Amino acid sequence: MKLNKKIIIPILFFSTLSVLSFGIIKKVVFKTKTEIVIKKSREIKTNDLKSKKDIYVNPQEAILGVWFRENDLTDKLEFTSNGHEKRYFDNILQYDDFYSISNECGGNSSQTDLLYLITIDSEDSSENCETIMNGVYEPNSTTLTLLDDNGRLVIYHRQ
User: Cα separation of 28 and 127, whole Å?
Assistant: First the structure.
């Protein structure tokens, strides 16, 4: 395909870093602006472009699968495509709750691009919110880091 114009496409990248300062975890978001410049009459082959799937990550799909808790391989979470979060200890199912991912939870709204993992207890319908620090924002992530209600980081690794 031939291009007849110079096209400038601005792209914003966001990176999040958690910093421990005086016993408090602070979220720091870095924003980087990059431009892709396509020059006039440059020949572009379609396989030179990244597919939409490589650029956009759907958090609901990225979290699917089995995750083992760091330093405790007997603690396992499984997120299914039908909205179930199954927790196993020593490969024995302990509970089967429901989950969703959102930028709002428990009346709170994320002030950054971070999302919440919302777990709804299947027995009493109580809602639990954990901030997703990483694991669903980039393709093929192997680490899921959650910030629980007590401000503790909980780290899981993909099976």
Answer: 27
Q: Helices marked H in 12-92 — which ranges?
A: 52-55, 59-62
Residue 63: count other Cβ atoms within 10 Å of its Cβ.
21
For residue 98, which of 125, 76, 68, 72 has the smallest C-alpha distance? 125
What tokens were used for 18?
Answer: 């958690």
Q: Which residue type is seen at 112? A: T
What is the per-residue pLDDT across 4-52, written as a single tens digit (0 to 9) for each?
444 444 554 444 444 444 445 545 444 444 444 434 433 434 444 444 4
Q: At 81, which helix (H) or strand (E)?
A: none
Q: Are the C-beta atoms of 147 and 129 separated by less than 8 Å?
A: no
**H helices of the chain, where?**
52-55, 59-62
pLDDT single digits (tens) 127-139: 999 999 998 888 8
pLDDT of residue 35: 44
Q: Are 113 and 138 in contact (CB under 8 A)?
A: no
* Contact predicate 136/142, CB 8 Å: no
CB 87 within 8 A of CB 128: no
pTM: 0.64
In sequence order, what E strands does 41-106 have?
Answer: 65-69, 72-79, 84-89, 92-102, 104-105
